[in-house]
């Protein structure tokens, strides 16, 4: 069965930041530091999904999706990241899973979508190898409660983005600017993934994936310098996180750094444990040129000539087809079934005089990308799911509430939900897909 779903993340929608024993995450800390987020926005309330989840499940049921990708808040389950379990946190996800199943929607939880418990960051975060083992402990605790009803699990969301933005450039939590000295974060996340796979399998998990953010890398020209720069960026963004999982080895990292002092005997065997699928998040290609004078081995030149989202990201639907077929070419038989676990766009969504939101740009975006998935499948890619980012307008990390990705508009003063035109369009499209 092909999975048609929507996706969200705990810190972006749940709110209830201090309810029922939840511990602090790095995003709680980060957002309360002056200047970290646009206009000082925080996820303290967000969409209040923690209290309003039945309304949100009803919206999904009305939309007609058969899967929902959400994330579990590590500090809601283990307030200090390890040790004492908060039963009220597990109870919340218990209720959510049962509510989804009752509505005919498959729950697809992600264990880590960037909200590391602050107590673990205080001892080094993902720079500390021990966190990988704490992650596996957390995975086992959650799976023990939910694995009997959850058909598919995702270990990590976008480990590249968490490493690059959170530890490399400091624009996301935990706000560290280590540049390429952040590379150990990649390995420790991947090791945590592998250990979590073991824990999930032991608890009876049926299907286990990881979600990587990937981008087609376009060289600025055919010059040797631009090609080398594009290869370095492809290694950092794509291969650093796909090769160890799918091939059991790291790519040549000489252009970006080294992991010689971090990787231990047996690590890659743990990381490359067989998976039931690979989650791919796609937003746009990346155009790369030769290095500038900033010490980086590449320059992101941006892409022009395409429509853009409110974020300024280029809208290139065929880039998704290119990405999926490129993965098949690169990894061949080592590539498991693929699920597009995030794809969507931000828009300047302003309700009209009658309260409706006519987001035609999002409709065009979704239509183009769904067609790209269909084309990739026609070209032989075993793609088995497509999840729209996002169900709701939500807290968009460093941008706060200024970027709206939702199929459903949220008034952040009243928390009222209003389905947009894209919601109605997708509902009709899903009906057509089920009844061709």
UniProtKB/TrEMBL annotation:
Mind listing the GO molecular function terms for this protein? beta-glucosidase activity
Q: Which InterPro entries match?
A: GH_1_N_CS, Glyco_hydro_1, Glyco_hydro_1_beta-glucosidase
Record keywords, A-Z:
Carbohydrate metabolism, Cellulose degradation, Glycosidase, Hydrolase, Polysaccharide degradation
Q: Which domain of life is it from?
A: Bacteria
The record's listing under PANTHER family reads: GLYCOSYL HYDROLASE (PTHR10353), LP05116P (PTHR10353:SF36)
Q: Which family does it belong to?
A: Belongs to the glycosyl hydrolase 1 family.
- Which protein, by its recorded name, is this? Beta-glucosidase
